[in-house]
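re the bet — no i am not wrong, look at it urself. input seq straight from the record:
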Amino acid sequence: MEPTIDPISAPSRRRRWLRWLLALPFLIAAGTALQVLVLRFVDPPVSAFMVARQFEAWGEGQWRFHPTYQWRDFDKIAPALPLSMVAAEDQRFATHSGFDLDAIEKARAHNERGGRVRGASTISQQVAKNLFLWSGRSYVRKGIEAWYTVLIELLWPKERILEVYANIAEFGDGIYGAQAAAGTFWGVDASRLSADQAARLAAVLPAPRTYNAARPGPYVARRAGWIQRQVRQIGGTGYLQTLE
């Protein structure tokens, strides 16, 4: 006897697949929102950039390479470091909602004139990229970065954003966060970083594998001096109280 073919089964399966496809964007949105919400309260054990650097080292045959990373809560980091990072990279951090539109427009105008490409990423965008994504300039990555930035700004207080950034930023090749940098470069705890040391760490952020905070060249020395002046201009330690 020939098997009976249910004429409804094939269209029914297609409808189920279509429903799953339509639901997929909402499931991804919910999953990423939950991911960000959890990390508001749970300190990240690792970042996407740390994982990528580890695989990069293995690909180069550096089998003993291992990123240096040790979490420190915000109140265990010298205030000079988060202040220096804000002064160096995102002076509108306290007031914007994840994107600095004025900085974006200035960067666009500058880049149209040619010369060295200037970015306009905020600290919130840097956290989204470093924690969840990969390096690169593709529109896909920038789109995902924007989505994570929105979630971070919606679900985290500003102090938490700055706390995470101070812990996952790369300050040297494989050296991530305030505690690793303070210990590697000066043999001190993150809570004992001086204003000059903090400014030098912030100064190398654009290219932490090129510049050295412990042995600053002319560029890092000049930039560190400028950062310390900017810290005073934004209000010093009083600025951090506006984030609470």
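see?? The mean pLDDT is 87. told u. also The first helix runs from residue 9 to 41. so pay up
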